[in-house]
Amino acid sequence: MCVRTCSPGYVLDRMKRACVPCHESCDRCMGATRDQCLSCKDSQDSLQGSVCKKSCGDGMYRNPETSRCESCHPLCKTCSGGGKEACTSCVEGLSYSLSQCLSSCGEDEYRNNGQCYMCDRGCKTCKGATSKDCLSCNDNRKLFNFTCVKNCPPGMYERDSNGIPECERCHPSCATCTRAGPDACTSCRMDLYLEGTNCVQQCSINHILDEDTKKCKLCNSDCPTFANITDRSALPHKNDESNAPTKLENHFILISMATCLSLLAIFALLGLCKSRSTNGYTKVDNNSASSVETQQTFDNNVPSVYIRDDNAESEAMLNDPDDQEM
């Protein structure tokens, strides 16, 4: 049958001088191949160039009025419209926030896979979605282990870190403190005492321990002494070990004590020997002592001879003839 125009779904093949069917995806076409469509048979398909597709590719969106794929804004990787506020994802290097592609996320947002998400409401800035991902805090709260707290926990103090209030740990000797360092304590751990702003094991000179407050108080002239105190806890404790004897001094003290004890023992033995040198003997002249048991001693550098007298209860001393001549 000869016709002036081909029916819908057909196109004129001039070589054959006949109407041939369009590609099955095309409703109207300018040729028989799939890339020669003028409109799509399926109303849900989109015409991209001259090809009917189920969806438009990256950087394009389906215009519902024309059923054609059109280009997104240059900042958008994918979009729902042609403006920059219609982005659904962004090109590399940009962050997606509230349908826009930005060079960075908002202050109260964090970036994940190229998109910006809202922080937890307690966080001013954050690195994730939870309350344990905060980088700074709202409502004058302090940052502690990426969590915003009203007050710093015990053993920590508040410090300013580039305008961000954070909780930092006190020195290990402090239970509470005002800043870093061992000289900023306001209270001490259980085994230490507070002296000024330092925590010590024992109170220093001119200080006395208050057992109730666990503080070393300055006592000056009214410090207790060893003579009038029975409670040793009230004695001033020395925190300075510089007066303690050294190991060499301890050895010297021990050697000195041993020497003194040895000398005392020698003197005691000499005294015993001297007392026994005359006990039970009678002094006689040298000539009469030849046939008896004798003992010669020197009294006041004068030679004397004693004879054993077992029956005598005391010593009888006879003058030496040489003494009489003198």
From TrEMBL:
The organism's place on the tree of life at top rank: Eukaryota
For this protein, the record's InterPro entries field holds:
Furin_repeat, Growth_fac_rcpt_cys_sf
Which Gene3D superfamilies would you find in this protein's record? Hormone Receptor, Insulin-like Growth Factor Receptor 1, Chain A, domain 2
PANTHER family in alphabetical order: PROPROTEIN CONVERTASE SUBTILISIN_KEXIN TYPE 5-LIKE (PTHR15332:SF175)
Which protein are we looking at? Uncharacterized protein
